[in-house]
């Protein structure tokens, strides 16, 4: 038998799904809900906690509970990499028209707010092993955040790494002011004569750190997908590594495997 707070949550959930409570609407105060349902305030809080855990409502400190606005979904497929490779050789004018985030979300360039920052980092053991270089090798660390202009949370937390000595032959690849770069990393690498042969992606799920949950604006209990993307060139060298943290409440991943015919 459903408990009292579960029944209250069911009724509020149905009101949200039916549109009786619209995104951005403020819910009645906890005391008002307690009076409406003839239950205690702690019971009401349990019902609201369920809805918060489901991502249907959010509690704003000092303001109350609000219906959470649906966030723009992201469909990330493995076919995006070939799309990016084709795009890397298009004219600059063509490359300026769209990017990977637009590809994954259906949004337009003008819909997005983009930020990039570059810094020099030293390769720790994990990255050194992945790149096949000694620990302490100088890397270019590039941090990216892209969000929908109508939202405040980024689609993902991205840290990308390049071996500095490899890319320094083109000074533009060390300059964050050149971002957003039309054609992305594959075009950047093409400017120094590097063609990608394959991309490997390792995906794991885990609870977010407090900092990740705050920046991604995750509902309580939401996991993140953690992706390590390693790009290899036609000489079998790892030439770029990205660590991507994806919010579990808006990200779908689709893998299409083309099979050889008998």
Structural notes for this entry:
It is a single chain. The mean pLDDT is 94. Helix 1 crosses helix 3 and helix 2 (30-37) crosses helix 3. The protein has helices spanning 4-17, 30-37, 41-53, 80-88, 92-95, 100-105, 125-131, 164-167, 184-190, 210-216; strands at residues 57-60, 64-67, 74-77, 112-122, 138-148, 157-163, 196-206, 224-233, 238-247, 251-254. It is an alpha+beta fold and 262 residues long. It is 30% helix and 29% strand.
List the helices and strands and how they pair.
Blueprint: H1 4-17, H2 30-37, H3 41-53, E1 57-60, E2 64-67, E3 74-77, H4 80-88, H5 92-95, H6 100-105, E4 112-122, H7 125-131, E5 138-148, E6 157-163, H8 164-167, H9 184-190, E7 196-206, H10 210-216, E8 224-233, E9 238-247, E10 251-254
Parallel strand pairs: 3-10
Antiparallel strand pairs: 1-2, 4-5, 5-6, 6-9, 7-8, 8-9
Largest sheet: 6 strands, antiparallel
**Strand residue content:** 25-35%
What's the shape?
A: elongated
Structural class per helix/strand content? alpha+beta
Query: What is the third-level CATH name, the topology of the largest domain?
Result: Chorismate lyase
Sequence of strands across the biggest β-sheet: 4-5-6-9-8-7
Number of helices: 10
- The CATH class of the largest domain: Alpha Beta
In helices, the fraction of residues equals: 25-40%
| CATH architecture classification of the largest domain | 3-Layer(aba) Sandwich
Mean pLDDT: 94
Radius of gyration from CA coordinates: 23 Å
N-to-C terminal Cα separation, in Å? 55 Å
In CATH, what is the homologous superfamily of the largest domain? Chorismate lyase-like
Unreliable spans = none
Instruction: Find the count of extended strands (DSSP E, 2+ residues).
Output: 10
Question: What is the chain-wise order of helices and strands?
Answer: HHHEEEHHHEHEEHHEHEEE
Number of domains: 2
